[in-house]
Write a structure and sequence with these properties.
- The structure is a single chain.
- 39% of the residues lie in helices and 4% in strands.
- With 197 residues, the protein is mainly alpha-helical.
- α5 packs across α8.
- The longest helix is centred in the middle third of the chain and has 13 residues.
- It is globular, with a radius of gyration of 22 Å.
C-alpha cells in the first residue's frame, strides 16, 4: 500500500487550510515544517512536551505558547525565562513531572516558529474572494434536499477532517507553495511614503 501511494504521489495537498485543519495537524514530523523542527522532534524538551504536557497536535502547542505567565515573562525579557512560576497551569505541569514549565512554553513557541506560513495556525492568507456567500450556501443546501441545481463552490480552503485533504497525483515540488491569488479588479495603487513636518 505504501509503495502504491509513493508511485502515484499520494500526499496531503490542501491549497489553503482552515484554521481548524491547521490546528488538527500533528506537530511531530509536521508536513509544513522547516528542517529545524525535524531536528527538535527528539530532544529532552520535546519528550517532556509529549509525555507530560500531552502535546500531539498543533493546537496543543498553541495553549502552551500563549500561556499568560509565559507571555508576561517574555514581555520583560526576550531571552531570560524564570525557572519557576506560581500560576495554576504551571503548578499542574510541575505535578505531572515537568521540571521547567516556562521552559516548555518557550520550546512550544520555538516549535511553532518552525512551521512555514502556509501551515502556521496564526497565519491568515489574503482572502481570495472565491468562497460562496452565506445566501448561496443556504440555497445550495435547499437545492440538495429538493434535488435541484446547485452553484459550484470554487473555494480553495480545505475544511473538515485532515483526511479530506489527501490527494493523488500531487506534484511534490509545490507542497509548500502558497496558493495563487486572484488579481484584484480595478487599479491597485501602491502606498506612497509621505514625510510630514
Amino acid at each position: 500500500m505504501i509503495k502504491t501511494a509513493k508511485r502515484y504521489n499520494v500526499s496531503f495537498a490542501a491549497v489553503k487550510l482552515s484554521s481548524a485543519m491547521k490546528n488538527a495537524l500533528p506537530i511531530w514530523y509536521h508536513l509544513g515544517a522547516k528542517r529545524r523542527l525535524r531536528l527538535l522532534n527528539n530532544t529532552r524538551v520535546s519528550d517532556c512536551l509529549r509525555e507530560r504536557h500531552g502535546v500531539t497536535y498543533v493546537a496543543d502547542l498553541l495553549g502552551l505558547a500563549h500561556r499568560a505567565c509565559f507571555r508576561a515573562a517574555r514581555l520583560l525579557s526576550n531571552d531570560f525565562i524564570p525557572s519557576s512560576c506560581e500560576c495554576a497551569e504551571c503548578r499542574t505541569d510541575a505535578s505531572r513531572g515537568c521540571r521547567h514549565p516556562l521552559g516548555c512554553c518557550k520550546a512550544a513557541a520555538h516549535l511553532l516558529e518552525q512551521v512555514r506560513p502556509k501551515w502556521h495556525p496564526e497565519f491568515e492568507p489574503i482572502p481570495d474572494g472565491l468562497t460562496l456567500t452565506s445566501k448561496r450556501i443556504e440555497a445550495n443546501a435547499v437545492a440538495l434536499e429538493s434535488e435541484g441545481e446547485t452553484i459550484f463552490d470554487p473555494t480553495l480552503t480545505s475544511r473538515g477532517p485532515v483526511m479530506e485533504a489527501v490527494r493523488v497525483f500531487v506534484d511534490p515540488r509545490v507542497h509548500d507553495e502558497p496558493p495563487a491569488i486572484r488579481a484584484r479588479s480595478g487599479r491597485v495603487v501602491n502606498d506612497e511614503e509621505v514625510t510630514a513636518y
